[in-house]
Specification:
It holds the Pfam family Methyltransf_23. It is a single chain. The protein is α+β, with helices and mostly antiparallel strands and 1049 residues long. It has 4 domains: 174 residues, no CATH class; 278 residues, 3-Layer(aba) Sandwich (Rossmann fold), CATH 3.40.50; 126 residues, no CATH class; 340 residues, Orthogonal Bundle (Cytochrome p450), CATH 1.10.630.10. Helices cover 37% and strands 13% of the residues. Helix 19 packs antiparallel against helix 27 and helix 25 crosses helix 27. The protein is globular.
Length: 1049
């Protein structure tokens, strides 16, 4: 016999699932049920046995003396649609049989003596965001009242009483912590009344967060109770009006609580209406986006877009399963917070927002708080968060450094923070955005208006630097390309584009209406007319735009003790060999860098531990050919991304080729710069390069004729390569050869090498950055800015000259130039001025210093190995009768010279250490070992090339190893040698560098005999600070043609 049965119709508007399920006429997300009355013998209210965890199957015993309300728990259960339909049909039939004419919403029906009543299940929501799979599984929740024991045999089954609830308050009024406690704790006596949701009331004159109110806007004073979670001093939740020591009210204040609370609730929900849209009232005017139903729908739709882009993941930070407290800043509709709370049921999750628009029926471990994230946070430092999450805060924050600082201060050591933000500026790789002039103007005006409002929208690209400056560690910026319509060929990207286009069509008004009318002074009508054109552009199928989603996450201060235990016991890298101190901390490896001997230390460690070496808590080094291919080579799904924390950020914040993490940005820049290094460009540039090499020979001959035969050949190599690179890049020489001394800018570059190494180490310890910066000499701090400023001056002069000449700039500019302020014009054919500035800064070093280093090393080892020098000189002088015969193509045919250059690259590589990468999402196999994602991996050039496991007699200069079969070198692993790297990010200037090096070396040894001076015997014993720290290389020159000109005739 059924002793108690509850049936109610419902329309669930479940915002966390992006799906509305219509089951009735009333919008009821939850309900509170009155106490049972009448005859019911100590019945035990049970849950459906297959859908209740073992620990929660038994409900508290309910008797006639129970208090006013009993909560309805919602426990997920998977059912197919067919099963749900059958259950709902039975429920519908039975409801009509009980009360066919009843139109009372959500009735509570007490039935006694009705036999064979089925167990009713109620549809709660569709699982997840993937609507295509909603027919496979749904969430069901049991209705309160399944089976109880028969208590009376003489019940005739005709007694039917209809009870209408006296209160229509929703389940938002139930304190979920009490509910959970009651479900888990047996009761021998009736349970206490359930508390309505607590309402945190600001103390007068102070900023206080407000827990989002229930749909009933005002509550009696005695219903205001403290947060029943253990606050431990957490002042973000206001205590009750009792004499509890945590109360924010004194005795005088407590008498006015009722009126103050009612006023406060009224203020929070007294929304502002403007131009047909609804806006928040708490801290009115701080946020320009509306909070009405259309905007809530847009936010939920964008949540679905993110789910698709991130493959269903709510976050990218590598969280463990022991999250205790999480904070969602700017929670909006609460959809992310609800899903996160479902995923971490043991965590206490808090979502904050200026508007109380979140649903009432939420997981018991989640609460929503009306709060301004820009105000002083009142959360207790004794209860820090394990995870702080925020997304779509563009246009909402005026003081980002303060927000980052407060996040850092309230994050548990070892916790994570994650920011997800779309770039405002849309882009197109095929330049089709030019077909959308209204859209381009809209983006520009939106950016300008938000900046004038002092809450800029376009803030995504700066998140990484903000986190670094706040002291966070391991800052990672993942960039995802999200189509803004259905133009993509890939079916997944096409689906993403379809949803994103719908979101953008809704967003243009949400983002702009308040800004354009308040800041720009436009009328509502003018704005709507303009937005119509913007929407037309967004719908144009010929426009192939996309936006970039930045997911930036970072680590809080590391708990050293916990880190030590984790490193030894649980880290997935714990099985790899290496020194224990290096595995525990990055301090030993960074001290090695500062000492200048990191290349030798890595070599020694490889000799001791083998080809795979653990260099840090999350870092591995390899020295095999397979590892080079795995880490740097082309692979399906994209390259290993660069570890940005190991690269010094450009001064202007715009990525150049060396530090570009985004594959698309790197590929586009490389395509544009590749024109300057093509075979045609090399032929066009050959005359210019030959002219500078001839000048070098003339200047050296002049030195010898004046009786100065002893020269620092290293400096002359630098004079030549910097003059060539300066002319090719900027259209003007540095005049180093002309003046026989380094240009001040070049001196600045050499003086900055140690500073770059120091800055690189400082970036590894952001917590100590402020202290370390104080110790950094003032002249070192300004080196980077001065170097960049000089580069900008050179670039701008070349751009203004409009010269038609065969150099890098003419190749870059062959398709035009985009000014920095118009960065939405970026395409695969146009480079911005800011990008040219940034690349000019790095190409000077990459294109000149490395070539000069290789030439200097080659001359040193030739002089140290006389038989090699003799054989090379014989090859050059027997091949060419005069130096005018030396062309790029001719010198390329010198086999022994090529072997000498290869051996120099091995024994004295211009780039000494490594270019680290991160294992991509999902993990990858490197050198036969599967590694988890985000592991830092690298191959160190010097250590790999000097390893006995790769090369026979590795410390000897022996070009013979590259000339063909030789039993001494038959086991050499020559494919380990990758001085120019490989794969999509291989060195762009490899062919130009080889042509330049061959020509200079060939002409030098054709005209002069070169002998090493005694003071330079140990020249190769150098330290490394980013590049080799080279001393003077003193040699004696003997002119072969003392009475001849440059040609030697």
């Amino acid at each position: 016999m059924i002793d108690f049965l509850c049936i109610y119709p419902m329309c669930l508007d479940d915002r966390r699932r992006n799906t509305r399920i219509e089951l009735g006429t009333d919008l009821l997300s939850s309900h509170t049920y009155p106490a049972l009355t009448g005859n019911h013998d100590s019945s035990q209210i049970l849950m459906q046995s297959d859908c209740v965890p073992n620990s929660t199957k038994m409900m508290p015993e309910i008797t006639s003396s129970d208090a006013e309300s009993v909560p309805v728990p919602c426990i997920p259960l998977k059912r197919t649609f067919d099963q749900m339909d059958a259950a709902m049909e039975e429920a519908s039939d039975f409801t009509r049989r009980l009360s066919p004419a009843s139109s009372i919403p959500a009735p509570v029906i007490r039935a006694s003596g009705l036999p064979d009543i089925p167990d009713f299940l109620l549809l709660d929501s569709v699982i997840g965001a993937d609507i295509n799979h909603r027919k496979e599984s749904i969430l069901l929740s049991p209705v309160l009242a399944p089976i109880a024991e028969e208590s009376s045999e003489d019940s005739d089954g005709e007694d039917l009483n209809l009870l209408i609830p006296e209160s229509t308050a929703s389940l938002a009024e139930i304190e979920f912590s009490n509910l959970k406690s009651d479900l888990l704790t047996p009761h021998s006596s009736p349970p206490a009344p359930m508390n309505p949701p607590t309402m945190s009331v600001p103390e007068v004159g102070h900023d206080r967060p407000i827990i989002a109110p229930s749909p009933t806007p005002s509550l009696p004073v005695n219903s205001l109770s403290p947060d029943n979670h253990d606050n431990n001093g957490d002042t973000s939740s206001v205590a009750s009006t009792s004499d509890d020591s945590d109360s924010v009210f004194d005795d005088g204040q407590s008498e006015n609580t009722s009126s103050y609370t009612a006023s406060l609730l009224s203020d929070v929900k007294n929304y502002a209406y403007e131009n047909g849209r609804r806006y928040h009232s708490y801290r009115e005017g701080h946020y320009v986006l509306p909070n009405d139903e259309p905007e809530q729908d847009r936010q939920d739709l964008l949540h679905h877009v993110r789910n698709l882009v991130l493959n269903g993941r709510l976050f990218r930070a590598p969280l463990d399963n022991h999250i205790q407290r999480a904070l969602d800043i700017g929670t909006g509709t609460g959809i992310w917070a609800i899903d996160f709370a479902d995923s971490f049921p043991s965590a206490e999750v808090t979502g904050t927002d200026l508007s109380p628009i979140q649903p009432s029926w939420v997981p018991p471990n989640l609460r929503f708080v009306v709060d301004d994230a820009e105000s002083q946070w009142l959360y207790s430092p004794s209860r820090p968060f394990d995870f702080i999450h925020a997304r779509d805060l563009g246009g909402a924050i005026a003081d980002w450094p303060r927000l980052m600082r407060q996040s850092y201060e309230h994050l548990r050591p070892g916790g994570w923070v994650e920011l997800q933000e779309f770039e405002v500026m849309l882009k197109s790789d095929d330049d089709s955005i030019r077909l959308a002039p209204a859209l381009c103007e809209f983006l520009e005006r939106l950016t300008q208006a938000s900046e004038a409002f002092h809450r800029p929208m376009n803030i995504a690209e700066g998140h990484r630097q903000r986190l670094v400056e706040a002291g966070f560690e391991d800052v990672r910026d993942e960039v995802y390309k999200v189509p803004s319509s259905v133009w993509a060929r890939d079916p997944v990207q096409k689906e993403i584009g379809r949803y994103n286009q719908c979101s953008l069509l809704m967003a243009v008004e949400s983002y702009s209406l308040a800004l354009f009318t308040r800041v720009l002074g436009w009328s509502n009508n003018d704005t709507q007319v303009f937005l119509a054109g913007v929407r037309k552009d967004l719908k144009n199928p010929a426009v192939h735009t996309y936006c970039k989603l930045h997911v930036v996450y970072a680590f809080g201060a590391r708990p050293q003790g916990a880190c030590t235990i984790y490193t030894f016991c649980w880290s997935p890298l714990r099985h790899f060999p290496g020194p224990k101190l290096w595995a525990l901390s990055r301090i030993p490896s960074n001290l090695s860098v500062l000492r200048g001997y990191n290349h030798l230390d890595i070599l020694a460690l490889h000799k001791k531990y083998g080809p795979i070496l653990r260099l840090g808590p999350n870092e591995l080094a390899f020295n095999t050919a397979q590892a080079f291919r795995d880490i740097y080579g082309t692979r399906p799904g994209g390259c290993f991304p660069k570890n940005r924390s190991n690269y010094i950020a450009p001064v202007n914040g715009v990525d150049h080729l060396l530090c570009a993490v985004d594959d698309a940005t790197h590929a586009r820049q490389k395509r544009l710069l590749a024109h300057a290094f093509s075979e045609k460009a090399l032929r066009d540039q050959e005359g210019l390069i030959n002219g500078y090499v001839d000048t070098l020979i003339n200047k050296l001959r002049s030195q010898v004729r004046q009786g100065t035969s002893i020269v620092d050949i290293k400096s002359w190599m630098n004079f030549t390569t910097f003059d060539i690179t300066g002319d090719l890049m900027f259209g003007e020489s540095f005049d180093c050869l002309k003046d026989s001394q380094l240009h001040p800018w070049i001196k600045l570059i050499f003086n900055s090498m140690k500073a770059l190494a120091y800055i690189g180490v400082v970036n590894q310890f952001p917590m100590l950055k402020g202290l370390l910066d104080l110790l950094l000499p003032r002249e070192v701090k300004r080196v980077g800015q001065e170097h960049f400023d000089l580069s900008v001056q050179k670039v701008d002069r070349r751009l203004a000259s409009n010269m038609a000449r065969p150099d890098f700039m003419s190749a870059i500019l062959q398709n035009g130039l985009s000014e920095e302020k118009g960065r939405y014009l970026e395409s695969d054919r146009i480079m911005t001025r800011a990008e040219i500035h940034s690349n000019g800064f790095i190409l000077i070093v990459a294109g000149s210093e490395t070539s000069a280093t290789l030439l200097s090393g080659c001359i040193f080892y030739l002089c140290k190995t006389p038989h090699v020098m003799s054989q090379l000189v014989a090859e050059i002088r027997s091949t060419f009768k005069q130096d005018t015969d030396m062309t790029f193509r001719a010198v390329e045919e010198l086999k022994y010279m090529n072997a000498v250059i290869e051996e120099t690259l091995r024994i004295y590589p211009p780039f000494v250490t490594s270019l680290s990468r991160l294992v991509p999402q999902g993990g990858a196999v490197v050198n036969g070992h599967f590694l988890p994602e985000d592991t830092t991996v690298a191959c160190h050039h010097y250590a790999s090339y000097h390893s006995e496991s790769n090369f026979a007699i590795p410390d000897k200069f022996m070009p013979e190893r590259w000339l063909g079969p030789d039993p001494v070198f038959e086991n050499d692993k020559k494919d380990v040698l990758q001085p120019f790297s490989l794969g999509p990010r291989g060195c762009l200037g490899k062919h130009l560098a080889n042509c330049e090096i061959r020509l200079i070396l060939c002409k030098l040894l054709f005209h002069f005999d070169v002998d090493l001076r005694l003071e330079s015997t140990n020249w190769a014993d150098q330290k490394v600070y980013f590049l080799w720290d080279k001393p003077a290389l003193m040699v004696t020159l003997k002119d072969r043609f003392p009475d001849a000109g440059v040609s030697g005739s």
